Amino acid sequence: MLSWLFEDEWFPKFDWRWDYAWEILPRLLEATLNTLIAAAGGYAIALVLGLVFALAQRSQNKILTFVVREFVEFVRSTPLLLQIFFLFYVGPQFGITLSPWATGMIAIGLHYSCYLSEVYRGGLDSVPKGQWEAATALNMTTAQTYRRLIIPQAIPPAIPGMGNYLVGIFKDTPMLSVIGVAELIHTANAIGSETWRYLEAYTMVGLIFLALSLPAAALIRAFEGLVRRKLGM
Amino acid sequence: MEDMSGFPQEITGKDKPMVSFRKVRKAYGSLLVLDDLDLDVSAGEMVSIIGPSGSGKTTVLRMLMTLEEINGGAIYVDGKPLTHMIQGDKLVPASEKHLRNRRSDIGMCFQHFNLFPHMTAIQNCMEGPVQVLGLSKEEARDRGEELLELVGMADKRDQHPSRLSGGQQQRVAIARALAMRPKVMLFDEVTSALDPEVIGEVTNVIRKLVAEHNLTMLMVTHQMGFARDISDRVCFFYDGKIEEQGPPVELFGNPQRERTQQFLSAVKEAV
Questions:
Q1: What is the pLDDT of residue A3?
Q2: Rounded CA separation B245/B247 (Å)
């Protein structure tokens, strides 16, 4: 009945070839690994730097607080792609020459650290004032209080937000293709330009992203539960 | 800067007070909370602070714990200035370092316990001794277990606070404060957040401390019967001042001031 839809004149190029898909799969899987490495590297940087930014914004030092807050606002208000280009092409003029891989991870890490600092801030603010007072009554230093009491309690409520940005980073890794990091999109483009067949490569890239993103939410929820139980909360 | 020339750099003598408030003033903005407070507490003395809410009772303890800055006067602990330090031959406001040195003499229990929720009862008691006093984990665990035993919580040593009742949490909080071996213990309305049926288990612990330990204690409380039983002295606060003070028998049995009489009869009616 709907056979007219599938006639060649309507879809002249719709021509999925399994043998070809099978043939390019190893290259795409290798690129998947690269994507995961780039995402993990960027995320690791973002996790650490985000906490540093969040703590700096709570510091007593007004100048430090101001500088960090403005920097975070600046990074959050400009596109990631611009930051990648800037770091990669303008960086050398300031004597900073980095490989595409390093540039990519640093750019993504820096960008997302500014988002994560807000997530951390929410978590840090959620710890009741009484915890600080108890720490003072035990004569603990500010550093000890953060390390032993405040940060451990701030993490569980921050985990959902941290997880969202992990998925966000993962989906933003294709931006690194513009400076030549051989992640999924970059590899799919390369495959396409070799054979002029894009259908299989792009479809498979989409499915790979889907397969990795979908379970993430459930895993993050499970992880939050685990951390809460571990901390007895 | 405030002229501190009238204040001694050290209080000496055999009968020197463990805690001494001298002309202490505290204001929040234009609201004067404490007005030239003078209060001496001897070593080993148990002083209860009573009075209507907003009379500055809790502020007295919070200033002594250095949770609040004072706006005038000075506080001495064990003869040495707490809120000030000696620079040259002058008293100047204390630095954070000075406070860290001096507040180790003081421990405090709070109305809402403020236990660390991510730590078990014993870990709560070990945190200060390990992190601040530098005890080994074994020493701190021994000390913590001994104190949990004292407050009757030894069997719950591995429970997190969320698994404990209010009364049990408060007893762990008392053990946690004692683990730092303070000379002065502060109890800030420690039974106010508790269900009536568990108040006794906390007051019994404090009774035991009074009977068996030579601690100096200041207690803000709304439990008049308890204050009468265990205090050496009761201070009635009204409007930022000590309106009346004396041994519990006298203050409760024969209050001299009209405001004290009004307050005590109002409290009695509420019960």
A1: 62
A2: 7
The type of residue at B74 is A
Q: Is B119 on the interface with A (CB under 8 A)?
A: yes
DSSP helix/strand/coil, B19:
strand
The 10s digit of each residue's pLDDT in B8-56 is 999 998 889 999 999 999 999 888 999 999 999 999 999 999 999 888 8
Based on DSSP, count helices (H) and strands (E) in chain A, helices before strands.
9, 0
User: Of all helices (H) and strands (E), which one includes residue B144?
Assistant: helix B137-150
pTM of the model: 0.89
Q: Which residues of B touch A233 (CB under 8 A)?
A: 117-118, 160, 162
Torsions phi, psi for B231 (to 5 deg)? -80, 150
Q: Give the helix/strand (H/E) hosting A190.
A: helix A184-195
Q: Please list every residue in chain A whose beta carbon sits closer than 8 Å to the beta carbon of residue B107.
A: 137
Question: Using a CB-CB distance cutoff of 8 angstroms, which residues of chain A are in contact with residue B67?
Answer: 133, 136-137
- What are the backbone dihedrals phi and psi of residue B84, each rounded to the nearest 5 degrees, phi first? -135, 165
For residue range B207-234, what is the model confidence (pLDDT) as tens digits? 999 998 889 999 999 999 999 999 999 9
- Contact flag A144-B66 (C-beta cutoff 8 Å): no
pLDDT level of residue A9 (50, 70, 90 thresholds): low
Phi-psi region of B60 (alpha: psi -120 to 50; beta: other; left: phi over 0): alpha
Q: Are B118 and A148 in contact (CB under 8 A)?
A: no
DSSP-assigned letters across all residues of A45-106: HHHHHHHHHHHHHTSS-HHHHHHHHHHHHHHHTS-HHHHHHIIIIIGGGGT----HHHHHHH
| ipTM beyond cut 0.85 | yes
